Amino acid sequence: MSESDISTLVEFVQAELPRDTWKPWPGGWPEQIEAALIDAVLSIAAQYGTPENGVRGAVSRYRKAVGTDRPNDLARLTAYDPDELQAVLTDQKVSGRTKASAIVEAAGNLLALGVKTASDLDPHDPAQKRAYTCVHGLGPVTWEYFGMLLCKPGVKADRWILRFVSRGLGRDLTPAEARSLLHEVADHIDATPTELDHAIWAYERERQAPESGATK
Fold first, then answer.
1. Distance separating alpha carbons of residues 119 and 33, to the nearest angstrom
2. Which of 8, 82, 115, 160 could form a disulfide with 110 if both were Cys (CB 3.0 to 4.6 A apart)?
């Protein structure tokens, strides 16, 4: 990453995505670590949907199943049988396993480190990150998104973000490179990384429609 790359990308963002066109960040799941973890894992190559379907619908069903609008206790999620959780959420898979089983395993790994509620999560803690990314099917991109859903500033460098940044610089970048660049760009234009991430994601998804479906 160079100052030239940052300047070029700042100019690209300002030209292609003026601030007054940004779609606002919907806010994630503040103080709801169970909802945020479910959302992060289910978001992998999936339609985000509405409160009645897609990822949002699955989170709504979970909240109804556990009887609270603010699910914020990984001990409860860890106690779920993966097959029972799958019946509540979705039958989708990631890397040959159910997403529900990955959610339960990640919740258990984090709980073992003392991460029980949203206030315990630190996206910059290497041990917490390893506890999540060591789960087969999960990786650093959705780890970053998990934190964002709990209102921790970040950039989820998924395919939409990578397309935008690569187009702006005229070359392919890794997710880590794109994430670092957008943190710098956000600082230069007085935005949070999360706000910039969502604005780019929404713009790029609409630009590529109908290919996109509505994945995050």
1. 9
2. 115
| CA 76/CA 89 separation, integer angstroms | 15
Pair of tokens at residue 67 = 């009887």
pLDDT in tens, 18-62: 999 999 998 899 999 999 999 999 999 776 666 667 899 999 999
> How far apart are alpha carbons 40 and 82 in whole angstroms?
16
3-state secondary structure 186-204: HHHCCCCHHHHHHHHHHHH
pLDDT of residue 212: 46
Segment 54-80, tens digit of pLDDT? 899 999 999 999 999 999 999 999 999
Q: Quote the CA–CA distance of 181 and 187 in Å, as a whole number.
A: 10
| Rounded Cα–Cα distance for residues 135 and 43 (Å) | 16
pTM of structure: 0.88
pLDDT at 15 over 90: yes
The encoded tokens of residue 149 equal 């859903």
Tokens for 65, please give them. Answer: 């199943």
Task: Note whether 118 and 31 are within 8 A (CB).
Answer: yes
149/34 Cα distance (integer angstroms): 11
**What is the SS3 assignment for 210?**
coil
Candidates 215, 53, 202, 51; CA nearest to 142 is 215
Task: Please report which residue ranges of the chain form alpha helices under DSSP H.
Answer: 3-16, 33-42, 54-66, 74-78, 82-89, 99-112, 126-133, 140-149, 159-169, 175-188, 193-208
